[in-house]
Amino acid sequence: MNNHEIDYKIYGDDMQFVEVELDPEETVIAEAGSFMMMDGDIQMETIFGDGSGRDGGSGLMGKLFSAGKRLVTGESLFMTTFTNKGSGKKHVSFASPYPGSIIPMDLSEHEGKIICQKDAFLAAAKGVSIGIEFQKKVGVGFFGGEGFIMQKLEGDGLAFVHAGGTITKKELAAGDMLKVDTGCLVAFTSSVSYDIEFVSGVKTALFGGEGLFFATLRGPGTVWIQSLPFSRLASRVFAAAPHNGGSKGEGSIAKGLFDMFGGD
């Protein structure tokens, strides 16, 4: 194996975190902002790219190319590594950013590659490569929404992906097709073909409330779907929040009490 072999335990139900157990000199990589806590003998370091060595070249230019690709997905140029520098087993924990579930994925069981939403990746064993997956079809490029530029996780180790709400896993046989809201699509194996389909019927497109396009996935392969995309959660919260000069309806009493006790 090229990846570090790490052990883990997932805690919680709706707001989960994953505790990773590291042997001496084992390393886990994570997105900035996912760190929760760690033992004292774990050394934390910020690096360019993902540190996998599969970054499109060697030396500084290769690392800059790897890190630069991450800017396309809206991620940071940097990632963080956590290495056990002690003599025994140590632990580091990473928390999910919003209500949902953490999905452990052993890439060796999925032909060494998983394609996922660009904000789904949480952490992985060192050696897993985190890159970008461009969809080649024009329709996906212009109309895919969250599904246009996706992340690809490559290697033979463990990776942890986070998704919102309830997660369901679908096994597609050859020829099977599944239609999914683009925001609800979390991840799929590399054998699944992916495209964007126009919603037929003017009334459906204008009044259906689900947008003009949805993702079509064709087997064989595995697909993971979330019931509550963060974009949907955020839009509902924003719509329900009282705004300056807005209505005096739901939420206005609580806001008035907040203002009374020193709120802005």
Task: Summarize the model shown.
This protein is α+β, with helices and mostly antiparallel strands and 264 residues long. The chain has five helices and 19 strands.
How would you characterize this protein structure?
It is built from 5 helices and 19 strands. The strands form 4 sheets. It has a 6-stranded antiparallel β-sheet. The longest helix has 14 residues, at 59-72. With 264 residues, the protein is an alpha+beta fold. It has a single domain, classed as Mitochondrial biogenesis AIM24 (Double-stranded beta-helix), CATH 3.60.160.10.
Write the topology of this structure.
Elements: E1 7-11, E2 17-22, E3 27-30, E4 35-38, E5 42-48, H1 59-72, E6 78-84, E7 90-95, E8 100-106, E9 113-116, E10 121-125, E11 129-134, H2 138-143, E12 149-154, E13 158-164, E14 167-172, E15 177-180, E16 185-189, E17 193-198, H3 202-207, E18 213-218, E19 221-226, H4 230-240, H5 252-260
Antiparallel strand pairs: 1-2, 2-7, 3-6, 3-10, 4-7, 5-6, 8-13, 9-12, 9-16, 10-13, 11-12, 14-19, 15-18, 16-19, 17-18
